[in-house]
Design a protein that fits this description.
The protein contains nine helices and no strands. The radius of gyration is 15 Å and the shape is globular.
Amino acid sequence: MSNIERFKEILIQVPFDRYDLSLVNRREYQPLFEELFEIYRNSNGTERSLITEFVKSELDLSYKLVHWHPHCKKTDPNHYLELKLMSVLIRDGTPDFRDDLLSLVYFWDFAEEKGINAEELFKEINEMADSSLFHQVMDPDRRKGLRII
């Protein structure tokens, strides 16, 4: 089975309900999300593009990635950030690039707060697909302008 087929199979397995956004965060789905991101990380550029096209093809697929939160935020903030940044990269601005920009600024600040080199982490993740959203947030002046407080 190809990386793309496996990614699709896993993402489709995860239920999503617009009236219960917490559904995707049940513990039993955590390993599925971990596998999704591992597949994405190990895919080549063409496969990553096809994965992004698939996710963007149906809004609920994007929402699954938006509303999923890794359970390791407190125990492993670096891994948490890697997963959240890959989620933004995979969705490529869907469902709303403005929310993603604000989220990326939050993730940058969170990284710095936890003593993680935000610039290095953003560059590493961005190398997988080269996102204009990441470039904006990596620019200190633009990042400052995006902060809402």
